[in-house]
Amino acid sequence: MKTTISGRKVPITDSFTERTEKKLSKLDKFFDSDASAEVTVTQERNLQRVEITIRHNGLLFRAEDASAEAIEVVDKLVDVLFRQIRRNKTRLEKRLRDDAFTDFLPDEPEESEYRVVRSKKFPVKPMDVDEAILQMNMLGHQFYMFRNMDTNEINVVYARRDGNYGLLEPNA
Q1: Averaged over 32-47, what is the pLDDT?
Q2: Inter-CA distances, 44 with 10, 41, 63, 123, Å
Q3: Which of the pair, 139 or 127, is modelled with greater confidence?
Q4: 102 located within any domain
Q5: How many Cβ atoms sit within 10 Å of the Cβ of residue 94?
Q6: What pLDDT is recorded for position 6?
Q7: Residue 57: inside a domain, yes or no?
Q8: Which tens digit of pLDDT belongs to each residue from 51-104?
Q9: Which of 2, 11, 46, 73 has the largest CB neighbor count within 10 A?
Q10: Whole-number pLDDT of residue 105
Q11: Where are the alpha helices (DSSP H) in the chain?
Q12: What's the maximum distance between 2 C-alpha atoms anywhere in the chain?
């Protein structure tokens, strides 16, 4: 797996790079050599936020967390990524390396299918992004789907953990 490590507002040490590559090598058994991992370390006040994104054959695995020490976060995030892959083992077997799961012994029961426990239909009225955020906050939801009056496309606004908001737009 090709690994790219970058830092924003924080220098990346050689020891951090070596330790991160060693930790990520635990995931090599799942991917072919064409997989790529991007590790980004960002300094935020007294915390270091680490994001790990792995891309392989159109699949995207991502984990993110923050702590005082970036290397502690890397250890945790590699475990999170391993659990993501393990949890979706049956769905991923066809797209990951052929022998990726030969040594795998499940620690937890696998789900054969996703369960939809609730379905809801509602009218989607045209509004701008600010109005959609206001509606989401008034409803007390974490996300809100709406028709963007500028683009006439269905968009989603969502509340981020850092207190800001995100916007999801379809890509043509």
Answers
A1: 88
A2: 10, 10, 17, 40
A3: 127
A4: no
A5: 8
A6: 92
A7: yes
A8: 999 888 777 888 999 999 888 899 999 999 988 877 776 666 655 655 555 555
A9: 73
A10: 44
A11: 14-24, 70-87, 89-92, 129-139
A12: 54
Residue 107's φ and ψ, nearest 5 degrees, are -90, -20
Question: What's the CATH number where 139 sits?
Answer: 3.30.505.50
Q: Considering its fold, how many domains does the chain have in total? A: 2
Question: Is residue 27 domain-resident?
Answer: yes
**Rounded average pLDDT over 13-31:** 89
What backbone phi and psi angles, to 5 degrees, belong to 154?
A: -75, 125
- Of the candidates 78, 117, 110, 65, which has an alpha carbon nearest to the alpha carbon of residue 92? 110
- Given this model, what pLDDT does residue 139 score? 80
Type of residue found at 127: M
- Which range of residues forms the domain containing residue 24? 2-92
pLDDT: which is higher, 58 or 159: 159
- Amino acid letter, 94: K
Q: What is the Cα–Cα distance from 22 to 29, expressed in whole angstroms?
A: 13
Instruction: Find the Cα–Cα–Cα–Cα dihedral 76, 78, 83, 89, rounded to 10°.
Output: 180
**The two structure tokens encoding residue 13:** 């040490």
Give the span between the Cα atoms of 73 and 64, in whole angstroms: 8
Q: For residue 5, what are the β-bridge partners?
A: 39
- What mean pLDDT comes out for the span 33-37? 86
23 and 85 in a single domain? The answer is yes
Which CATH number is 67's domain given?
A: 3.30.160.100
